[in-house]
Amino acid sequence: MAIVAGVDGCPGGWLCLWGDPERGALSAGILERLEDLLGLEPRPVAVGVDVPIGLPERGVRACDREARRLLGRPRASSVFPAPLRPMLAADSYREACRIGEGKDGRRLSRQAWNILPKVREMDAFLAADPSRAEWVHEVHPETSFAVWNGGVPMAHNKKTAAGAAERNLLAEGWLGTAWPYARSGLPASGYARDDLLDAVAALWSARRIAVGEALRRPPEPERDARGLAMEIRA
């Protein structure tokens, strides 16, 4: 039995799917903090999280460039450069952009700024116990869906009805009745529909990590200043 988890940031904290998908045992909930992963029983052997983990001092990570190449247009736009590690100390968007311009002449995207609190939380979570990086892995839902779909990126934006339908089709084909059952256990608020779709993509990649089937991009990732791999698993 391999207990795995897929996690995506959401307004209420972190939307988490966990269990043994191969046996149809799946639970869903919203964690207030990443620390709550430690309270899941039994503890997942692999967790896929949609948040940048290894952070560069300057420039764009190779894993982000490779993910964009894999997805092509128009899904490549869902992969934006991870924030630079020095930006974690920024108190404002203007300050973050000033740090980026000083490092490599590149401003931080608004999308990256919006997830910076989640990036900080993940960084602190891993700093508290570096061994957590052995079972917590960065994923990107759109790359996971593309690999899941036989190497073909999703045709529609995940926020559209057509996009939700094509992603749900993959989830239902894999999880069967466990998929609607797990969704029924979620609260009525605190997350968006696409957060749930991203979490199931992260769960799918976590299972592949647990059984040694997951792709690693790039195959030999660089490490950041804290020794964290700058990679995306799928």
CATH class: Alpha Beta
Tell me the strand percentage band: 5-15%
Helix content: 25-40%
Number of domains: 1
The N- to C-terminal Cα distance equals 21 Å
Strand order of the largest sheet: 3-2-1-4-5
Q: What is the overall silhouette?
A: globular
Secondary-structure element string = EEEEHHHHEHHHHEE
The name of the CATH topology is Nucleotidyltransferase, domain 5
Given the structure, what is the number of helices? 8
Taking the sheet with the most strands, its summary is: 5 strands, mixed
Overall structural class, as computed from helix and strand content, comes to alpha/beta
Low-confidence stretches: none
CATH architecture: 2-Layer Sandwich
Alpha-carbon Rg, integer: 17 Å
Mean pLDDT across all residues, rounded? 97
Oligomer: single chain
According to DSSP, the number of beta strands is: 7
